[in-house]
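Continuing the batch. This is chain 6 of the set; chains 1 through 5 are on the previous pages. Same settings as before, nothing changed between runs. Recording input and output for traceability.
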Amino acid sequence: MVTHVNAEAQGDERGALLAFVEAQRGALRRSVLGLTEEQAASRPSASELSLSGLLKHVAEMELSWLRMAQQQPNERARTQETWGDSFRVVDGESIPQLLAFWAEVTAETEEFIRSAPSLDVTFPLPEAPWFPKDGKVSYRWLMLHLVEEIARHTGHADIVRESLDGKTAFELVAMGTP
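Output for chain 6:
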């Protein structure tokens, strides 16, 4: 890990989980530091992934999980036809717009987790071949999954960024946090 993550206070499980999620978010946000929109949208490796596409996907993924936990409809739900658009900038979207949208989602996630009566509260998983039939997960599981999912895509972003200009995660930390 490039940065050290502190829990807010000894024994503060919610604060610790939120801090680890935010550490991964910060690493992904830093991946676009100093880049133009064109550079951030480019795909310098064999992968279809771009940095701006990863930002968009992770913001939408977090919103999707938040809406599942809230048991509310996802206003940005994707269909099979639009799934690919969750990994690329379209219709005049920009990095500032994606970051602003994600900031709204992260604030809502934090408020939801902080106000939950318990991290043991569960919510149902949707029907999908990769989920167990009638599966449920807890808010704690949700937070651990966000760490896992964002970290996976942050690793992708590390490779894409290094392929673009050779900058590593350590150099991006030294540049600052967006």
